[in-house]
Amino acid sequence: MGFKGLKPINYGGREVWPLIEGGKGVSATNHMSSGAWAAAGGIGTVSAVNTDSYDSDGNVIPQDYHGATRKERHQELIDYAIAGAVEQVRRAYDLANGKGAININVLWEMGGAQQVLEGVLEKTRGLVTGVTCGAGMPYKLADIAARFNVNYLPIISSGRAFRALWKRSYHKVADLMAAVVYEDPWLAGGHNGLSNAEDPTKPEDPYPRVKAVRDVMRKEGISDDVPIIMAGGVWFLREWNDWIDNPELGQIAFQFGTRPLITKESPIPEQWKNKLRELEPGDVLLHRFSPTGFYSSAIRNPFLRNLEARSERQIPYSRVEAGEHTVQLDVGVKGKNFWVAPKDLERARTWNGQGFTEALKTPDDTVVFVTPEERASIRKDQADCMGCLSHCGFSSWKDHDDYTTGRLADPRSFCIQKTLQDIAHGGPVDDNLAFAGHAAYRFKQDPFYSNNFTPTVKELVDRILTGD
Q1: Is 3-284+446-465 a domain of CATH 3.40.50.720?
Q2: Which of 422, 413, 375, 367 is nearest to 391 (CA)?
Q3: Phi/psi of residue 382, each to 5°?
Q4: Inter-CA distances, 280 with 49, 72, 430, 434, 441, Å
Q5: DSSP assignment, residue 190?
Q6: How many CB atoms are closer than 10 A to CB 168?
Q7: 19 CB-near residues (< 8 Å, 6+ apart)
């Protein structure tokens, strides 16, 4: 028995704790963390998003790209992704030693997601119990699960999103849907599903939202034994007391994404772990700079502050004199047909004087002002694009049809592949995107982590099961 009657559930033919390790892409979770989580009796999650492969000496193989075109580099990316995820799954399965279960996590918005998922499942038959999938509307997930006979666990953030997936596709493969992950858009780390109807600055209580998901599930005839997994903001189980054994919600399980980052088995570099230990409330920012176009949550470090500042150095323009656009921009651009408002001309001249001498066009008829070094870096990253997303706002890449989104590349965004690979492999935490959930400040407050204590995954799971 766990905390307050938390009972094991039957998953994939065995009893496991209803505790799931959140799968964090690009090597922020790997076989060590997920294998250990499963060995402790929970559900470990290997990320299948750009994960590491190893050479015969066990060293990480650097993901270098040699293709001359984006399309060629995209194929290299898919090959790396499949090889890495297969390797991680095999190692995690061995570490789990027949206990718990191993899931894989796939970002549906990842470039070549379907190809990667099929490639991994093809080579790991019998090792993967389920596939967790979010970021986008993965209608095809059920069909793929059926072909490989694995469970699937869609990630949604509203009853409405679940209903759409169920009606269009999932009802046909009802028996393999092992759980529904409710990922709270205001609490979870990484990319999240905030809809246009929801206000990023006004968090909603997750309880009624999860109850609404259960109501939809009941209406569609789905058993209360199919768990809803609460993801985002979960720290102490005692804070979810009224969710456990609550007939209104049916079976509930809990996903831990941020908390397992500080464990002995967590593969993230030491300096990233140290950064997490010093966060205060409000240090994680829900922002919209991601090239996916989704909102996402990350540590508000100099990297993110720089993107905030860049977007603030932004003015609208028109190609002809019109409305308040009565003067010509004379800094940062070549040519005369940039008409702006007089007040914006003054701002542009000020930025120019501060060294932000280059104006870059955005897809929204604005220009942002950057330094010559920033401009060179942005242009290089855009040119080096290897198509890691199905649609990328930063480079205008699309992974199908004519390989372009048809929109101007957006200099207010960034190359997500470059920064996530860098931070995961020891690059400076302040100069990279550092995803984290909004409860990350609790590392500093939770006595479990005092004196720089780093638990093993087993120690963390045992601790969680006490309610703390």
Answers
A1: no
A2: 413
A3: -65, -40
A4: 29, 43, 16, 15, 5
A5: E
A6: 12
A7: 37, 41, 42, 43, 253, 254, 255, 256, 461, 464, 465
pLDDT in tens, 201-258: 899 999 999 999 999 999 999 999 999 999 999 999 999 999 999 999 999 999 999 9
Q: Which residues contact 149 (CB under 8 A, 6 or more apart)?
A: 176
Enter the tokens of residue 383: 């040119």
**Can you spell out the DSSP letters for 66-102?**
--SSHHHHHHHHHHHHHHHHHHHHHHHHHHHTTSSEE
Measured CA to CA, the distance from residue 393 to residue 290 in angstroms comes to 8
Whether 399 contacts 384, CB under 8 Å? no
How deeply is 433 buried, as exposed, middle or buried, from its count of CB atoms within 10 A (0-12, 13-18, 19+)? buried
Q: What distance in Å separates the CA atoms of residue 248 and residue 271, rounded to the nearest whole number?
A: 43
Can you state the percent helix, strand and coil of the chain, rounding each to 5? 35, 20, 45
Question: Which of 430, 411, 417, 415 minimizes the C-alpha distance to 367?
Answer: 411
Q: Name the token pair of 304.
A: 């993110």
Dump the DSSP string for 397-464. Answer: BBSSTTSB-SS---TTS--HHHHHHHHHTT--GGGS--B--TTTTHHHH-GGGGGG----HHHHHHHH
Helix (H) or strand (E) holding 113: helix 113-123
- Distance between CA atoms of residues 29 and 46, nearest Å: 6
Q: pLDDT tens digits for 329-361?
A: 999 999 889 999 999 999 999 999 999 999 999
Domain ranges of the chain: 3-284+446-465, 302-431
Q: Could you give the CA distance from residue 161 to residue 198 in angstroms, rounded to a whole number? A: 13
What one-character-per-residue DSSP string does 287-348 give? E---TTSSEEEEE--HHHHHHHHHHHSEEE-BSS-BTTB-EE--SS-SSS--EE-HHHHHHH
- In angstroms, the CA 325 to CA 439 distance is 45
pTM higher than 0.85, yes or no? yes
Q: How far apart are CA 76 and CA 83, in angstroms?
A: 11
Dist CA 267 CA 27 (whole Å): 7
The answer to whether residues 291 and 267 touch, using CB atoms and an 8 Å cutoff, is no
What are the structure tokens assigned to 367, written together?
A: 């220009």
